[in-house]
Amino acid sequence: MKIKVYSTSTCPWCDKLKHWLKEHKIEFEDIDVSQNMEVAQEMVKKSGQMGVPVTEINDEIIVGFDINKLKKALKIK
Amino acid sequence: MQYDLIIIGAGPAGLASAIYATRYKLKTIVFGKELGGQAVHAYKIENYPGFKLISGQELMKKMQEQVKSLGIKISEEKVIDITKIKEKKEKNNFIVSTHNKKYEAKTIILALGTERKKLNLPNEDKFLGKGVSYCATCDTPFFKNKIVAVVGGSNAAVMSALLLAEYAKKVYVIYRGKELGAEPLRIEQLKKNKKIKIIYNTEIKAIQGKNFVESIMLNNKKSKENKKIVLQGVFIEIGFIPLSYLAKKLSIKTNKEGFILTNQLMETSIKGAFAAGDCIVKPLRQIITAASDGAIASYSAYSYLKEGE
């Protein structure tokens, strides 16, 4: 499973999300969109919006720290 | 399990309460869904003694670590109900319910905090994350070289504008009053910043666009003139409403807006129930005043428990 987290270093919800993933021992690629405008635009295109965090799990896009959606996509009970 | 004290809220008020509760050896648990509370959204804090400059996120992490190191559990379970046991005793305990469990406590501290006020414009929800934001700290990087507006005139609004000006091409501050309500030091920084333009006596009437925000319509309250501004982002910082839903469950007295009424000892209208932080009626809502309320509330809970012992 390939997991990407689009985040910024100043966003509290991103921090919570990443912490939650680590707690569940899930490896992910952390992408700081504030450092790279191209990936920021890529994230906007994929998610249709400009808020972080955005999690990409295979081809599924989850906006925000939405535990229920994340659990479902990651098959965590 | 029975507790001496249950603290509801894990922002500065709740966490300071917890630290003080350990000084008084009160058996305590903290409930907080949003660890750190609203304070985590402050990108720069320069007025909390002991830290010349720290981010809200960092400061709140430190407070949490301190609480946990003292052996107090912070549960992220959502509290859905609080009742007071009705017995013919002088001091009745409280029952705090989450979705899964019930907890009993001799005293409670409500450090419930606040949530962002909305403009209540028709397209506001539709454009959330598509140009409308309530968190400049979170979303600013997406507005590099763009034109944005901040609605509001408080400290939070001014701080957001200053942060946005680091990225955006132009920042409008739209305020319905004639004088900003922020700290003079911040206002000075705002006025010096060439990217920022302040528009007074003006309300935002509409947010327009197709898929993303493309413009806003403003109305000057004095001249009654409408003006359209083409932009890509609208940051709404028009204040907070108290999260006092749980206080209402206990029929605790609040003011018209729902802020909890307390006295100097942080006592509410219900015996054994105390309140602290942004959710109470007070003149200055800051991390330091929330922490101070929390300390006093724990002291008062302790005094209440000792009474008649």
Plain-language structure description:
- The complex is a heterodimer of chains A (77) and B (309).
- Chain A is globular.
- Chain A is an alpha+beta fold and 77 residues long.
- Chain A has a single domain (3-74), classed as 3-Layer(aba) Sandwich (Glutaredoxin), CATH 3.40.30.10.
- In chain A, 40% of the residues lie in helices and 22% in strands.
- Chain A has helices spanning 12-23, 37-47, 67-74; strands at 3-7, 29-32, 54-57, 60-63.
- Chain A has three helices and four strands.
- Chain B has 309 residues and is an alpha/beta fold.
- In chain B, helix 1 (12-23) packs parallel to helix 2, helix 1 runs parallel beside helix 7 and helix 4 packs parallel to helix 5.
- The A-B interface holds A 8, 10-16, 33-34, 37, 40, 44, 48-52, 63 and B 35-36, 40-41, 43, 55-57, 128-131, 133, 135, 137-142, 144, 211-212.
Keywords:
heterodimer, A: 77 residues, alpha+beta, Glutaredoxin, four-stranded mixed sheet, B: 309 residues, alpha/beta, FAD/NAD(P)-binding domain, 2 domains, five-stranded parallel sheet, 7 helices, 24% helix
- Counted up, domains of chain A total 1
Structural class of chain B: alpha/beta
Portion in strands of chain A: 15-25%
Class from secondary-structure proportions of chain A = alpha+beta
Radius of gyration of CA atoms of chain B, rounded to a whole number: 21 Å
Largest interface: A-B, 19 and 23 residues
User: Gap between N and C termini of chain A, in Å?
Assistant: 17 Å
The CATH architecture of chain A would be 3-Layer(aba) Sandwich
Percent helix range of chain B: 10-25%
What sort of overall outline of chain B do the alpha carbons produce when their principal axes are compared? elongated
Please identify the top-level CATH class of chain A: Alpha Beta
Count of spatially separate domains of chain B: 2
CATH superfamily of the largest domain in chain B: FAD/NAD(P)-binding domain
> What amount of the residues of chain B lies in strands?
25-35%
Shape of chain A: globular
Q: How many individual helices of chain A? A: 3
Low-confidence parts of chain B, pLDDT < 50 over ≥5 residues?
Answer: none
**Highest CATH level, the class of the largest domain in chain B:** Alpha Beta
